[in-house]
Q: What sequence folds into this?
């Protein structure tokens, strides 16, 4: 049976990309509904009809981010045979991330982190998203230890937490305008902490 009513007058994926850019650039609390409506080219009733709420729109934007950016980051960990090279390549990719000539750095490390108590559900969602990469890093390092790629006895959770902290720091440095040379120097220093080096 054909869908009744007036068809949507906007492209949902395009609208999500516009919302993603705003959340990446201004954060969740720094992005107003008025800005979202203007960037997405829709009115308030259409926004709520299509996405439910600002929080649900944020979640939809995060899902889009994971498809367009996050999957590639996770692939680096799985597609690089040497664990050290995988981590170094991942750090370089994070430092170089940007949203269509917009904000630099990782969305979940910088763009959606500042949420007060009124938006604790969003803060939890973003923390969970950060956990996905940390868990993937932990899994990759665990595999490296099993394969003898890193010395036995290394505290894998601590090592994963260290490189996760480096990812978050690099993202903030990139967001703040650090140039490529500085970011490369930070990555070089981070890799000097690699076990066995």
A:
């Amino acid at each position: 049976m054909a869908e009744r009513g007036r068809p949507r007058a906007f492209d949902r994926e395009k609208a999500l990309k516009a919302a993603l850019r705003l959340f990446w650039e201004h954060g969740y609390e720094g992005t107003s509904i008025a800005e979202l409506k203007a960037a997405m080219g829709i009115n308030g009733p259409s926004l709520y009809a299509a996405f439910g709420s600002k929080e649900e729109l944020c979640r939809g934007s995060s899902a889009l981010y994971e498809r367009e950016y996050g999957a590639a980051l996770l692939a680096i960990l799985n597609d690089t045979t040497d664990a050290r090279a995988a981590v170094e390549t991942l750090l370089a990719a994070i430092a170089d991330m940007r949203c269509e000539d917009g904000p630099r750095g990782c969305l979940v490390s910088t763009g959606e982190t500042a949420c007060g108590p009124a938006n604790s559900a969003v803060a939890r969602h973003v923390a969970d998203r950060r956990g996905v990469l940390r868990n993937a890093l932990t899994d990759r390092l665990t595999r490296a230890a099993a394969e003898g790629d890193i010395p036995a006895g290394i505290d894998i959770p601590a090592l994963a937490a260290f490189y996760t902290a480096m990812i978050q720091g690099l993202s903030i440095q990139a967001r703040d305008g650090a140039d490529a040379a500085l970011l490369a120097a930070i990555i070089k220093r981070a890799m000097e902490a690699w076990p066995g080096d």
Observations:
- Residues 1-7 have pLDDT under 50 and may be disordered.
- The two ends are 65 Å apart (CA to CA).
